[in-house]
Structures are given as C-alpha cells and as structure tokens.
Amino acid sequence: MPAVEIGVERRIAVVRRFSQLFLVAALAVVTLLVLGASPARPAAAITGRAQATQVTVVMKEFHLVLSVRSVHVGPVTFRLVNRGHLSHDFKIAGKKSAVIAPGKHGLLRVRFRKAGRYPYRCTLPGHADAGMKGVLKVTR
Ligand SMILES: [Cu+2]
What is the pTM of this model? Predict the structure, then answer.
C-alpha cells in the first residue's frame, strides 16, 4: 500500500476515535443533567414537584385538632374539616383559609421556608380566645 493511503486511513481512524470520545462525553453530560447535579438533594428537589405534607385540621367549638404536632420545612396542605356547629377558618404563617361552614371542608396550602414555631388560629371573633388556637412546630 502506498504511504499516502496509510496516512489517510490513520487520519480517519483518529477522527472516528475522537467522535466516539465526544459521544461518550455528551452522554455523560446528558445523564448528569437528567439525574440532577447533586445526589444529596432529595428526589423532590430534582423533579421540582415536592410532595406536600398532609395535615388534617378538625374544627370544633372551640378547638382546632391537628393530626400532627410538627412538620418539616416545605409545602404543607392543611385539610380543614369542620365538625362543629359554627363556621370556622384557619390562619397560619400569614395565610388564611376560606370560612368553612359546619359539616364542610376545605384546603389551605402553605410553604414553610424556615424552621420555627408557627402559631395558628381561627380568626372568627372570639374563637381563638375561646380555644381555637395553637402552635405548629416546623423543623428542618
Ligand atoms: Cu372558629
């Protein structure tokens, strides 16, 4: 074989090798992007669709009974169930639900960004003073 042809073949082989390396590198980058850069983050942070913690709040005259005493930082859905004979609402972390009629239920979604103690209350006149209040602990 003439020397010129050997040179061309070698060059083609080098180009092939580089394109294979490039493909492997590109696949690695795509894989990292799909999986998310940091494996320490929870799955919810990678998908961006954090699963909200559910807390049931039973409303009665005159107290609010929460299904848990504490939640973690992040989105929380309060499921409000009025088992009383009067209308009630639920306010926490500056967010307030609609007024829930007796026998009805509603939802309040709150995102807790910091750990701490968050007071909650029913804002209807006199209800908190009569006992419809408490404190929810939010932890890291
Ligand atoms: Cu009330």
Answer: 0.66
In the reported structure, the alpha carbon of residue 117 is separated from the centroid of ligand 1 by a whole-number distance in angstroms of: 21
Looking at the fold, whether 67 and 127 belong to one and the same domain comes out as yes
pLDDT in tens, 53-86: 999 999 999 999 999 999 999 999 999 999 999 9
Residues 22-37 have pLDDT tens digits of: 445 553 443 433 444 4
Report DSSP letters for the chain, one per residue: --HHHHHHHHHHHHHHHHHHHHHHHHHHHHHHHHH-S-TTS-HHHHHT-PPPEEEEEEEETTEEEES-SEEESEEEEEEEEE-SSS-B--EETTEEPPPBPTT-EEEEEEEE-S-EEEEEE--STTTTTTT-EEEEEEE-
Same-domain status, 28 and 86 = no
Question: Domain residues for 27?
Answer: 3-35
Q: How far is the CA of 125 from the centre of ligand 1 (A)?
A: 8
